[in-house]
Amino acid sequence: MGLEGLPEVREGDDVARFVADAAERAGGLEDDDVVVVAQKVVSKAEGRVVELASVRPSRFAEQISGGRDPRQTEVILGESERIVRLRPPLLISETRHGFVCASAGVDASNAPAPETVVLLPADPDDSAERLRARLHELTGRTVAVLVSDSFGRPWRQGTTDVAIGAAGLQVLLDLTGERDATGYELHATTIAVADEIAGAAELVMGKTAGVAAAIVRGLSLAGTGKGKDLIMDAGRDLFR
Amino acid sequence: MGLEGLPEVREGDDVARFVADAAERAGGLEDDDVVVVAQKVVSKAEGRVVELASVRPSRFAEQISGGRDPRQTEVILGESERIVRLRPPLLISETRHGFVCASAGVDASNAPAPETVVLLPADPDDSAERLRARLHELTGRTVAVLVSDSFGRPWRQGTTDVAIGAAGLQVLLDLTGERDATGYELHATTIAVADEIAGAAELVMGKTAGVAAAIVRGLSLAGTGKGKDLIMDAGRDLFR
Predict the structure, then answer these.
(1) Share of chain B above pLDDT 90, in %
(2) CA of A6 to nearest chain B CA: how many angstroms apart?
(3) A114 CB neighbour count, 10 Å cutoff
(4) Beta carbons of B49 and B119 less than 8 angstroms apart
(5) Between B161 and B176, whose confidence is greater?
(6) Which of A61, A105, A202, A224 is 20 to 30 A from residue B221's alpha carbon, by CA?
């Protein structure tokens, strides 16, 4: 269920109140709902916005920009722990949180104004936890919260939304040790349910429709998973 | 909506009839429904099953098995166009279809019997198209069909379900040229909606519950996309 009518978010805004009000108009939150909020909205409320006029690009940023505004590239490099792949203007990096994604999650679309870019939240799990606590305060409902963003993937076209922050939810469903109908043990089968939920929510949110939050209802996945649990350890990762 | 009560599928079975019957019990199919069917079911109906007793492993298969049955490794190599990463027993390869996934999609879980493995459908888009046509024949409804499988991803823990075959649906939603609320043009924003739909369906299917198909209702994404449209061209891909 997409939540319509969220106002344009500015630094300091109470996003949970916007979500609670929009949910109220749609019949109200229920316990065990998963509330998915687009990263862009969370970042703007947290002031994670950079004015490009304040940025002086390094020579390296100019060299690898490939047509992008070099000041934006400078911001991307500042958010990057490590460059994973570079084919200007495409820059895939590992962010300080450990996410591997295009442009370190720095984005100019849906920014509050021209000549500004939006960064990922400093700690998306904290953001999710705060939203969850505030939604409980406002509505009395115990919900889960995901902060979602659109990530590309190697080998496949297009982006899918994934969970970069989580609170109140199992994010990975570990079936190791369970058996299928023929008695075969399902080795190492772990499902990234939080990413599937974020992707499902994207289907009713959209990038242009201005629907920046959604409710996913009917799952029983209460838990204590974190968005960072979805990051593969660099040591196990064959692609870093 | 997960479709309960699908019988165990054997070679030659009419999967569309099983789906139509299960859907009927759940209130019936509607036009524009997306019917998501697990790859394993489609493969079994198409006889894409190999008895390991019939396989003689090469020396190479023995060397790289890392504890896996070398006959299964031999089958994986037979389904592989190219090995992308190898850390025995983990083997990520490009399949003959162009998918990059673990074990070339060859799987022993949910196989029809011990000592057998299930391969991906020979042409999952054809499989989807046939299911779609047959569902139309049986129910009069014009639905879309996705054939789904669980794929791992670099950098992130856990699998998500993706669409390996499609019929009657837009699989990629291309927002290039559309503008966000501030007038910023959304460059190169393409959403892999078919993968998000497959992931959403997984949430109500599960690996152990024996729910091998689901209906996703309420989207308006009729189109002519194919599962193979979701494969990134090798030339554009920075990770092959």
Answers:
(1) 82
(2) 13
(3) 10
(4) yes
(5) B161
(6) A105
* A162 neighbourhood in chain B, CB within 8 Å: 156
Give strand pairing partners of B51.
B116
In this prediction, residue B177 has a pLDDT band, given cuts at 50, 70 and 90, of: low
Beta strands in chain B (DSSP E): 34-38, 49-51, 80-87, 90-95, 100-102, 116-118, 144-153, 156-167, 173-174, 190-191, 213-216
| CA pair distance B159, B152, nearest whole angstrom | 4
Q: Does B111 contact A157 at a Cβ distance shorter than 8 Å? A: no
d(CA A190, CA A237) in angstroms, rounded, equals 15
- Residue B52 pLDDT exceeds 70: yes
Run of H or E residues at A38: strand A34-38
Amino acid at the residue A206: G
CB contact under 8 A, A196 and B178: no
Q: Which residue has the tokens 């075959």?
A: B165
The CATH superfamily of A1-47+121-233 is CofE-like (3.30.1330.100)
Which of the residues A44, A103, A155, A191 would you substitute to probe the B interface, choosing the one with the greatest number of B C-beta atoms within 10 Å? A155
- Which pair of tokens denotes residue B27? 């209130």
ipTM of the complex in this document: 0.94
Nearest to A190 among B154, B157, B219 (CB): B157
Pairing of strands A34-38, A144-153: parallel
Return all residues near A150 (Cβ < 8 A) that are at least 6 apart: A159, A160, A161, A162, A202, A207, B189, B191
Instruction: Answer with the residue of higher pLDDT: A107 or A226.
Output: A226
According to CATH, the superfamily of the domain at B49-120 is CofE-like domain (3.90.1660.10)
Chain A closest CA to B131's CA: distance in Å?
24
Burial of A220 (0-12, 13-18, 19+ CB in 10 A): exposed
Q: Is-same-fold flag (B1-46+122-229; B49-120)?
A: no
Is the pLDDT score of B99 beyond 90? yes
Q: How confident is the model at residue B181 (pLDDT cuts 50, 70, 90)?
A: low
Residue A35 DSSP code: E
Report CB contact under 8 Å: A208, B175: yes
Question: What is the reported pLDDT for B239?
Answer: 86
Among candidates A178, A192, A202 on the partner chain, residue whose Cβ is nearest the Cβ of B159: A192
What are the domain boundaries of chain B? Answer: 1-46+122-229, 49-120
Cβ within 8 Å, pair A207-B184: no
